[in-house]
Structure to design on (200 residues):
């Protein structure tokens, strides 16, 4: 599901970039998925150079939704018990990796922010052409994060590279749920209480 969501964002952004660049043919996608921390690897760098690179830098569980329903009922009267779904926020790093062309890097970064300003919420209904299975329901809202200088230093220090033009977005939220059932049974429709009557 995480890969599906990231692929959907890239597809939507690339479509926007082709239109904004007046390149409807879409011969090459400006935005790609990749680990920006591996730029010191010459093979990886060759694939990521002169691209917008999308990297997943953190995951966060949405604890406010942790206490969800642990059962579902079917029309047949059967109740299925399962663990609560895992609701995640994705922290997505968009890096404009254009060595030797700082102006293009800033332009691409501006296009990313303009795109998400115009479209913050992504659902199966407003994202046609996605490869996400039709039975998966999701709603992802993109929020731009404003990092302090200290947080920026920690981020790029952990990535092991020199800072490039970038923006960090939080995608809220995606839901992961396994189809395995813990137990099942019928619905309790009435309770019978037996016992001796209390004597006055």
């Amino acid at each position: 599901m995480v890969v599906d969501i990231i692929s959907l964002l890239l597809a939507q952004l690339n479509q926007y970039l082709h239109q904004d660049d007046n390149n409807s043919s879409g011969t090459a996608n400006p935005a790609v998925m990749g680990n920006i921390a591996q730029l010191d690897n010459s093979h990886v760098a060759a694939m990521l150079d002169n691209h917008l690179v999308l990297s997943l830098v953190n995951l966060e569980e949405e604890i406010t939704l942790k206490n969800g329903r642990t059962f579902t009922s079917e029309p047949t009267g059967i109740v299925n018990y399962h663990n609560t779904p895992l609701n995640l926020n994705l922290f997505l790093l968009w890096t404009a990796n254009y060595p030797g062309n700082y102006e293009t890097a800033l332009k691409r970064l501006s296009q990313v922010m303009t795109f998400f300003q115009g479209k913050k919420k992504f659902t199966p209904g407003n994202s046609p052409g996605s490869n996400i299975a039709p039975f998966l329901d999701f709603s992802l809202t993109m929020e731009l994060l404003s990092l302090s200088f200290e947080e920026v230093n920690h981020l790029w220090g952990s990535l092991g590279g020199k800072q490039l033009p970038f923006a960090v977005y939080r995608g809220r939220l995606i839901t992961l749920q396994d189809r395995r059932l813990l137990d099942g049974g019928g619905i309790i429709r009435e309770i019978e209480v037996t016992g001796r009557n209390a004597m006055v």
Summary: Helices lie at 2-20, 42-48, 102-118, 149-159.
